What we know:
Elements: H1 3-27, H2 31-39, H3 45-63, H4 73-89, H5 96-112, H6 121-151, E1 155-160, E2 163-170, E3 173-176, H7 181-201, H8 205-225, H9 228-253, H10 259-288, H11 291-295, H12 343-354, H13 358-363, H14 370-377, H15 382-390, H16 392-396, H17 406-439, H18 445-460, H19 473-507
Helix pairs in contact: 1-3, 1-19, 3-5, 4-5, 4-17, 6-7, 6-8, 7-8, 7-18, 8-10, 9-10, 9-18, 12-17, 17-19, 18-19
Amino acid sequence: MNKIEIKKWTDLFVKLYISAVLLYQTLWQIVPIREFLCNTGLDIISPALAVVGFAFLLVDIFIERTVFQSRYCALLIAAVAVMGVSSLFYISYGWVDNAKVIVWQIVQMALIYSFYLRLDKRQIQNYLRNMFLIISVVFTVAVIASIYQYIMQISYVVQVNDGNCRQGFQEGRLFGVFGSVYFASLLISLLGIGSVYSAIKARPIWLKILFALQALLFFVYVVLSGTRSALVGLIIGIVLCAAVAARSVINKKNSSFPIWKKAVCVSASVIICAAVFLGAYSGGEKLLAKIPAWAGTVDSGNQGDDPNNGSNDNTHDDNLSEPNIDDVLTRPDTQTGDVSNNRFSIWKDYFRCTFSGVKSTLLGYSPGAYMKIIKQEFPDIFIVSYIREHYPLTYSLDRIYDTHNGYVAIVAGTGLLGLLAMGAFLVLYAVRTLKYFIKAKRPDSFWIMIFTLLAVIVVSVFFDSDLFYKCTCTSIIFWMLAGFMMKAVDEGKTADEKNEALNADIKQPTPEQPE
């Protein structure tokens, strides 16, 4: 085969591979599907996909070297190198967990992130549309089942291979049929944004209505989940989206507006959009809280909690009386006076452990084993003792209180060197992206939507989950969208450079002809 044919087949393989990884990880969030995969041995698909992706990367290095052409790849390589060095320093605690993390990180930061180099804008749009349709249909069914559990006040616990999963409606929150209320609410928030975009872009009226109803369903679940990190991420995403979209509309209708008038219009748009969303969220919460009373159902009580499975609750009393129906959506864990819901204590402990020595300060405690190491080295701190006392099964699996902050996880796993490498990538990426939207007077609405999705992820991950040392639906979507956004930025900059060069040629005076 010639180079063109090789590229065609490798591009097709990468597209199919990323689709398989994304679909598997999103379906993994639905507990009935997760149970089926575990009971039938099909959960081996995940490590098999990791091996396949890593093997392809090795082949790609000798064929196309596409992974080395992605923007800021040197910083990502540096981040992987720090992970490797940190793992070697703590190899006495085991190497398997670190190897899994590193392999998946390489696959995501190299293969999935560089996917944008294999597609043009039209192909990116078609690919995202197809993946959105497949995933949103599955999650629409799952959300409907979850809302039914809320209406009927169904509550139970399912034990899977990685611990207990709360299901249904418990403790003022709708977990539904999902394994983690945080991952579910974040992914459904992203799907909701996609539904709104699709409703705006769709031409047939019936299709607009269908996508609008789908967005409404997703919004209802986010409200019922009570996940504040997703709420904050959505607010920031809406603010940025409103600012960029309003500026684009103003430039389209009247580009001669004075700067101060544009600033006023953009600010007004941002405030209105944020106020409308918060009003809808608050009103929806009050309305939804009355549904169990209308349906004649009652709360089924508390079933315990796993802080590494989507929430941070305090000690629970299984003998609590029936809650007031007006307070059905009030989370007991947020009524203790600690607005951070233990997060400040968690972050403080992780920082104290990480900065306790020179080696840990520079390299952390390795990306896949930092919980195990902290458990053994600091047995009496809060993040260890709390799990030991309340969740002995989780403690026996060498798991302690999760960082509940993706950026804290970077520090705990790879220290200041890892934070420097990954932080430099994120900062340079953010600056380059923001410059693109500042310079682009009328950016495409598709790229505004991608920008909004990325904003929601990077903001919400500050309050929950570790985005960088796991392979989850969130991490895959993040790295894929980050690449797609860079496609717009790079092409926009190239177009600007061409226009500047063309304008320079036009303005250059022609030499006078001799008489």
